[in-house]
Design a protein that fits this description.
mainly beta, elongated
Length: 128
């Protein structure tokens, strides 16, 4: 991919848009991540979902963040139905200098998705 190019269906961020790519990054890992210089944003129009990918100088991905919400139908009286979140996920991943990815994942399911669990893990490839 040439410098400054974005993958198909991606939109480069406009000059006023900023990505706080270090938010949530544990201090003890900060010196080990590759810093992005260019970002692109992917938006899903049929559901609440978005993905931001950061690229380093060599145009290789080194940061990604995504979230999505899956809605479900509920009813209190089996007569009238309404939409509520049934599952959501928020993921942030940073590529480390050794090629692995530090991944932070927060997800929720169940009654109105009010509670969630979160965890860090290491991965060999960028999360998809």
């Amino acid at each position: 991919m040439r410098q400054g190019a974005c993958p198909r269906r991606a939109r480069p961020l406009s000059p006023g848009e900023r990505v706080d790519w270090q938010r949530g990054l544990p201090r003890e890992w900060a010196e080990q991540v590759v810093s992005p210089t260019l970002f692109s944003r992917f938006r899903e129009y049929e559901m609440l979902a978005e993905r931001v990918v950061g690229y380093e100088v060599e145009d290789e991905p080194c940061y990604c963040e995504h979230y999505f919400v899956l809605n479900t139908m509920r009813s209190d009286d089996d007569d009238e139905y309404y939409v509520v979140p049934g599952y959501w996920e928020h993921l942030v991943a940073w590529r480390l200098r050794d090629g692995r990815w530090l991944v932070f994942r927060r997800l929720s399911s169940g009654e109105d998705c009010a509670q969630y669990r979160s965890f860090f893990c290491l991965a060999e490839a960028m999360p998809r």
